[in-house]
Specification:
Helices cover 23% and strands 42% of the residues. The chain has one helix and eight strands, in the order H-E-E-E-E-E-E-E-E.
């Protein structure tokens, strides 16, 4: 190949590559400017919420005739002052009426409910849980019941 042709080819290649580089840098700068020029949507300020929900039976042994009237204790924790709406749900498809509890600050408050369950001579295999509806959705673990009713 002729030195003159090679020099001409190298010059064209460098011109092309430099032009491409300039174009890429310009395109990236323009994209960066348009992205920076657009305001980012603001996230709503996170308000107080329920941070923990627990439930447990008040008695762990059933020694009464069935149907047994069982009591359950729930604990609701929040990270600030808020109003909490909650309900209880059980394995038989029952939902208790919605209740409201006011929290003046970040704290733990207790709630209770009773549930009549079982039949004479039958085995009870059921659960109950405490379900938070607002300010955020959250549920306790299921409190499991497993016992045999006397005849």
């Amino acid at each position: 190949m002729n030195t003159r042709r090679l020099s001409s080819f190298v010059g064209l290649s460098l011109s092309f590559l430099m032009g491409l580089t300039v174009f890429l840098v310009s395109a990236a700068s323009a994209a960066g400017e348009s992205a920076a020029a657009q305001p980012r949507p603001k996230r709503p300020a996170a308000g107080p919420e329920v941070t923990a929900v627990e439930v447990r039976p008040v008695k762990t042994r059933v020694n009464e005739p069935c149907p047994a009237k069982l009591s359950f204790l729930g604990e609701i924790s929040t990270n600030g002052a808020t109003k909490v709406e909650y309900t209880w749900e059980s394995s038989d498809g029952r939902s208790w009426p919605v209740q409201t509890l006011k929290f003046a600050s970040a704290t733990v408050q207790s709630v209770t409910t009773t549930w009549q369950v079982g039949a004479p001579g039958k085995t009870v295999n059921a659960w109950i849980l405490l379900k938070i509806l607002s300010p955020n959705a959250k549920s306790s673990s299921k409190s499991l019941l497993d016992f045999k009713c006397a005849k």
